[in-house]
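Give me the fold.
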Amino acid sequence: MAEESKKDKKKLLSKLKNRYRLVLVNDLTFDERFSAYLTPLNVLAAVAVVFFSITFLVVAVIVLTPLKEYIPGYSDSQTRIRALRTAVQADSLAESQRIYAQYFENISRVLSGEVEIDTVTPEVPADRRITSDELSLDISAADSILRRQIEREERFALSPGAGLSPAELGLPGVFFFTPLRGFVSSSFDAAIGHYGVDIAANEGESVSAVYDGTVLMASYTVDGGYVIQIQHPNNLVSVYKHNSALLKKVGDRVEAGEIISMVGNTGEYSDGPHLHFELWYNGSPLNPQEFIAFSA
């Protein structure tokens, strides 16, 4: 029996290795168009390769494309996201319900008198407490000395709109160049938060730096439009708002009288072509009209 099975296997292998010729012939002329030698083994191998290739391609298309969402029982990404959000909202609602239930339970206990009056033992014994009669509101000598010292230091402090000259500010010899000649349509008023002056002018007129310095800011803001700020020596800062174009960038060195921007009508706080100019010293606004003559 063993020999017969071996013989059968050899016959099968020999049949698989038998060569066959595949010929394509023109039915009318009987011309041979194509021929190839094949074996059953090669045919089976080719069929297997084609089968596995098609299977791999189908699986890749299903996994890597949205077609997988059409498979019954498969949930798409949007469904999973909605389910997650629903679970989170349900958890939040449960927590809110628990808090409200606890709140109403506490209210019910308070109204029914189940909650006892809270008693707290004072940390300070009664015999050591200070009564209102013993409390003295008289100004002490140390407090009086401190008050006089602060008043003496604040006597010469700069306040908005103080109208001090460069010499009084400790800036002797400072000469401010006029940034723009024109009509002052709105003056300095710190009480209403207008920390500069508005000079009406035609759009496109040039704006000059009032003093030597370095450009600190050159950008667009919602309220001020195109704004440029210059840091000057002695803690002075000049601000130019509502420009139509900026000719300098941050870090540029400028000299007094050098053109830095063009008059415009940009920003929400602008209702016409003009320049809003501010002058700051040590973080406090100054009235520019006390230092610069803007009229032509």
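Residues 155-163 have pLDDT under 50 and may be disordered.
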